[in-house]
Amino acid sequence: MAHGGKRPRVWWSALAGILLLLGCAKSIAPPGGPIDRTPPKIVSSVPPSGTTNLPLDSRVVIQFSEAIEPRNPEQSVFISPQTDPAPKLSVKGDRLEIGFPGGLEPDKTYIVTVGADLKDAHAVGLAQSVSLAFATGAIIDSGSIAGTVYEQGKPKAGVSLALFEKAPDESAPIDSLIPDYLTQSGTDGTFAFRYLPMRPYVLIAFDDQRKNRRINPARETIGIPFKNTVIDSGRSSLEGIDIQMVRQEAAEVGLKSVTVNPDHLIKARFNQKLTQRQAKALFNTADIRATAGDTLPVKPAAFVPITPYPSSDFLLLTESLAPGSTYRIRFDQRVLAPSVADSLRYLLGDCTATAGADAAPPTILESSPADKATGVSIDSLFRFRFSEPLDTASLGTALRVVDSLGDTALVPLIAEDPFTWSGRPTAPLTGGRGYALRLDGPAIRDRSGNRLSDSAVTTTFVTLDPAVLGQISGDIRMTSIPDSSAPVVVTFVPAGQGTRREMALAAGVRQYLADLAPGYYTVNAFVDIDADGIYSAGSIVPFRPAEPFTTRADTIRVRSRFESAGILIEF
Hints:
Blueprint (H helix, E strand, L loop, with lengths): L1 H4 L1 H20 L15 E5 L13 E5 L12 E4 L7 E5 L2 E5 L9 E6 L15 E6 L7 E9 L2 E2 L4 E5 L16 E4 L5 E7 L3 E7 L14 E3 L5 E2 L6 E11 L7 E6 L5 E9 L1 H8 L3 E4 L11 E4 L5 E7 L8 E7 L13 E7 L11 E5 L4 E4 L5 E5 L12 E5 L4 E3 L3 E4 L2 E4 L10 E6 L17 E7 L6 E8 L10 E7 L6 E5 L5 E6 L2 E9 L21 E3 L4 E3 L4 E2 L4 E2 L1
Parallel strand pairs: 8-16, 25-32, 33-40, 33-41
Antiparallel strand pairs: 1-2, 2-5, 3-6, 4-5, 6-7, 8-9, 8-12, 10-11, 10-13, 13-14, 13-15, 14-16, 17-18, 18-21, 19-22, 20-21, 22-23, 24-26, 26-30, 27-28, 27-31, 29-30, 31-32, 33-36, 34-35, 34-37, 37-38, 37-39
C-alpha cells in the first residue's frame, strides 16, 4: 500500500513539469523573418580552382555560403572525365567533400561542375552552374563552349547538357551512354563548359527527368545545335550557341490498322502520332497492290491527316479499288529509323475494298481561320481541308465572306491538293471588323454527288485593325551558316496573351518587316535548310544536326503606328 501510494505524487510531479515546459513554450515568439530566397554561392575550394600538379590521391572540399541540402549530392554534382570507381560525395553543413577511391590519373584536367539544381537547406538552388578545374599535370585545358537553351522561344533553366567526344550510334542504346562532360543551364537558360581539351564534340541538351544523367529521347525533350562543336588551336572558344528544346520525333512506328472507309479511301492508323515531316517522309514510300494477281504496285495520289498534326490517323487517295478485292499497303520506315532491323523495316497492312456506291457526305476536317477567331490579318488566306476529294464544278462560287454591314465578297477556292482548298476574297477586308464566312453546303459535293450539308456552313472572325498596329523590322545576318542563301522563318512570340506571328522569307531575302499588335515580343528564327517551312530539330541516332536556330535575348516593344527598326537577327 505504501508503494502504491507514492504513484500519484510521481504523476503530479511529471504533469507539473510538462505544464512548466508548455508555459515556457508560450513565452517564446514564433519563428519569423523574411523567407530565404538567396541562392547559395561557392565561397572557396581546397585545393583552389586552377591548381596544377595535383597529387593523384587528392580529395576536393568545396565551401558554400550556407548549409546545403545533404541528400543525393551526386544528382547535382558532375565530375568529368568520369572516374572508376565513381567519386564519393558527402555533405557536412556548408561543405561538400569529394573523394576519389581509385585515385586520379596523371596529366589530366578534372572538372567539378556544381549544377544549378544543388539547393540550400531552404530549397533555393544556385543561380548558375559553377565549374572548378584541377590538373594532375602542369597545364589546365582552356577550351570553352557556351550558349543558351530555349523552349518555345523562352530561356529554359535546369536543362542538362552533355558533351560526347564520339557521336552516339546504333551500336549501343543511347540511354546507356555516359556523357564525357555534363553541365546544366542556369536560371536565365545559359550554360557553359570550361576547361575542355581541344577536340570536336557532339553537344546534346536533354531534360533529365530521371536524374540519371542518361538521355531518354522517348520521354524527354531534346535539343541539338545545328553543327558539331569543334574547338582547337584555331578556335578555342565557342560562344552564343542557341539550342531549341523539342520533343524528338519517335523513330520506329507501328501500323495498327488499315481499312477502307465508305468514301472508298484507305484509312491508315498508326500506334503513335506523326508530325507533318514524318508523315510526308513515310507516305512518300507507300505502295499499294492487290494481293491476287500480278498487278504492279501504285503510289497513293494524296494523303490527309484526319486530325491536325501531329496525327495518328490518315486517309489515302488511290486509284479505284475493285469492290471485294483485298489490297496490301506497305511503308518503308527506314526513312524514319535508318538503323531499324530488316525484320521490322516494312509496315504492312491488308484491307478489303467495300462494295456499293459512296453514300457518305464529305466533312470539314480543318478550317482556317478557326470559328470565332480574333486578330485575323486582313490579307489572310482562307483554307479548308475536307475528308475526301470534291467535285470542283461549284468551288469557284461556293465561299463568300460577309461583313457586319451585310456587304458580300466572293472567295474563289483553288486546290492545294485533292483534299485542301484555299482562296482570298475578291474585295479587300477592313481592319477591326467582324465577318462571317459562309460555305454553300448544298453546292459542295464529293465526286459521288453527296452534299457537304443541307444548309450553309458559317464561321465568324474579327480582323485586326491596321490602325493600331506597330512594326518590327530589321536585317538577318549569317556568319556561320554554310548555305547563306537558304530561306529563313522568323517568329514573333508575344510576352503575354496574343497570337504568334510567323513570317517565311524567300531564299536570299535578308530583311524583314512585320505588322504586329501592340505589346512586347521575343523574336526567334531558323534557317529552313530543306525549304519545307518546318523546323528540323535533328536527331541523335543517327546523329543529324538541327536546322540553325537563334533567338534574341531582349524583348522588343511594339507601339501603335511606330516602327521598332534595326532589330538584327544573327546566325
